[in-house]
Amino acid sequence: MIVSWNWLSEYLRLEMPVDQLTEKLxxxxxxxxxxDDVGGDLAIDLEVTSNRPDCLNHLGIARxxxxxxxxxxxxxxxxxxxxxxxxxxxxxxxxxxxxxxxxSHFTARVxxxxxxxxxxxxxxxxxxxxxxxxxxNIVDITNYVLFESxxxxxxxxxxxxxxxxxxxxxxxxxxxxxxxxGKTYKLQPNxxxxxxxxGPVGLAGVMGGLExxxxxxxxxxxxxxxxxxxxxxxxxxxxxxLFSPSSHRFERPMDPEKTDWASRRxxxxxxxxxxxxxxxxxxxxxxxxxxxxPIALRLSQIERVLGISVPQSTVTEIMNRLGLQGGDTTDxxxxxxxAPSWRSDLDREIDLIEEVARVYGYEHIPExxxxxxxxxxxxxxxxxxxxxxxxxxxxxxxxxxxxxxxxEELSKPIHGDLMEGAVPIRLEHSSRKKETTLRPSLAPSLxxxxxxxxxxxxxxxxxxxxxxxxxxxxxxxxxHEPVRVSAVCGGDWRIAKGLAEAVASRFQVQGxxxxxxxxxxxxxxxxxxxxxxxxxxxxxxxxxxxxxxxxQQAKGLRLPCAxxxxxxxxLIDQAQLQxxxxxxxxxxxxxxxxxxxxPDSVRWADIAQVARQSGGPLLxxxxxxxxxRGGNLAAGTxxxxxxxxxxxxxxxxxxxxxxQAVGEIIRSCSESFGATLRx
Amino acid sequence: MSSTSNETTAALVELDRLESxxxxxxxxxxxxxDWEAARVVFLGLKQGRLxxxxxxxKTLPGPDRKTYGQRFNAVKTSLESACDSAKTKLDQSVVKxxxxxxxxxxxxxxxxxxxxxxxxxxxxxxxxxxxxMGFELARGPEIEDTFHNFxxxxxxxxxxxxxxxxxxxxxxxxxLRSQTSTxxxxxxxxxxxxxxVVALGRVYRPDAVDATHSFMFHQIEGLYxxxxxxxxxxxxxxxxxxxxxxxxxxxxxxRPSFFPFTEPSVEVDMMWDSSGRWVEMGGAGMVxxxxxxxxxxxxxxxxxxxxGLGIERLCMRRHGIDDIRPFYQNDVRFLSQF
Lengths: 679, 338
Fold this sequence. Notes:
The structure holds two protein chains of two kinds. By secondary structure, chain A is an alpha+beta fold. Chain A has 20 helices and 31 strands.
């Protein structure tokens, strides 16, 4: 809201420097945006919060300044002059209100024989300070009164109204209106319009029609001052994308006592600046005062909320300055108040307490009253997330934060398989053209990050993210939002799997980790021959694998990459957050390694299991080293190279004992898989 | 001394040759590996030439052994001394070579490591500070129902903040939360006072993306409800937070503002240096009695304060970042700066 310094000076004596004024306004709720010198006047831009529509006009701001600086505010009650021979307004026009629920108050006054011309300099200047273009005296006056009182007005050329009458009604399907901005709007049946006998001449509270506007030849003028339902005005505005100073005010609570005041003020100015004769009387439909309950204010509550005590005399003075009436003390420490018509936001005790705080000044509230000591502990989830970040950054991955909303395209590789046929959650409508879907997986966003980095000079970026994904479910009202960690890294699936293993080791649950192969592909972006699922303690933990060449090419990725995505829940539940000490062995261990030639179809996990079972009590550990194919090996066979550690906790183990155990392992592997020693 | 036998004489000549060859060899060495090889040749315990010479003693006639033995000991001492001094000399020369031969100004080879996202770093720091002040981390869903996102927060059905165009609705009854205040409601519904929590997470508003706006961003929200909680407690808590976060004494200023779920509502400004410049940090206020009622609390029994801070804004200010978009682009050249 831009206000003019000179204009404000009409209502009170502004003797303070402008900086002092704006600072004080800012500290009492009207944030100061800027002050501009506009040819001898100052245009002060103030931010008005949505609870203070009374400050969307000069009188309101003047009142606020009056409260803060304890200055009297002068404003008069306009009484436009009637000449003796004045015609009755009802002889010139009629108004019918078919929608009293949406138009609670409608007034019409008529001035005949006015001359439309340029406004005087002072009026043009006032509007120009606010950035409003002067048009003609009549239009400028309606704008002036709007910015003075906050009450929007509309002036019709009475002679252009078919049958010289108005009706407040809803639009009829198919009706159109050319507004004063020259644009044609198709009206919907829910929109409130002002119509003449022929059709709509204005969008109630939003904008008037071009056809019946005041032009240079207009003489007979009908002034409309009304109150329209805020939601109706807002909906019409939104649907048509048409916003005006008028709709801005009608969307908010209005001062009911300003409707008639503004009408009289407008007519007074027209008679003064454009001449003509005022028709006797006013056409008034609806109206009446809003019934409001008096508000009881307990002095003790002020201290209970603010933490400071404010004397009753100060409270009373603040209430009085704000225009509240009453102050009767029924009980000790309780006073009762009636809010002024313009303060629609004051209904409850807490509203008055806020007013006391605001006017008394927040600087009086001390900042040395700390809250008492309390204990807060970190949840398992927090500790797990921290550990994952430690582990993955330690592995060289960067943490990314990507949007939860993704394009439908990006959600495609996942749905259908991982989501078991469910469709990802979509927004009803989105202000984002592309991002319309809540992501069911993090990996596609991280692939985008890798591609983004490639196009910015970093070809082989490995990233991870910890965030929620969003999955539909039918058994509860809200969708499921499991938290996941996903990583996209350069290299092959062994790197991705290694990250999962590193995370598992970080929380001492590596022993619970299990790789399960799937016959059907896990995700369409994962190579079916180079991807699998991970389980932790028998619970599905996630997936890892190589990104398919096709998917890689589709994203323009030059280097191969691997993907990992894990649900945090199985880890949060099973993580060992208080690792237990295991005594280090006193006795030295003996290590051996073996290369066994087995058919290609044999899996390392199977060999490892047989080795563990057959290695005897001295076998401490079996460790994969590598797989070899080709060379002098027969086709269809592979050599699995692995290491073993043997130890006797009581005494030094001899090499012969270890060799004996190795012999057992070879024999068992030979029986189970036809394994032979690689020569 | 013709008393010695011919073979003893030959053995003594051999000892002389061993001494002269050995000493020369050790004196002319230029590298540690050569020295090691020479040591094995001459002084090796199993087949070194000195060892061979020692074995030769056994084959000599008894009377000659003493003579040979004395000479052998002298040669042994001489060779060992030559060997030791050669080693000392070589060790010293290695040090000299390093100074001259290696360029120690080339960079080392560290293992690469990644970084936590700057927003995570800021979030963790905030959680840590508020944790030390007794605020536990609370969470709530990002997809919310209109009750928790609006009604319970004193935003009634006809309120403009509920406009479809100003929110991301999934259905008429569910939407992406527009503020973390929703978590307040969920915590209060599930718990009796006293309550002291911070909620941190993603929030969504359909703003056009530019340098200072994003349709998704992060908030941290604090809530404290108990008997006798006042605005003085709020101001003091925020000042303590600021002191810890900014590492120096800070003054807090309240400016009146409006949020449906708090009353009184304030904007929080802070000033921490002599510039006299107030910096806007976030919004706060006393929990509105209607909000307390909505979760079944008696506003005459308990009171509470709430505050909300934007993570991006705090992070940008801390690191001098002037554009919000790089947070979500995740360019490693950006991420590696923090």
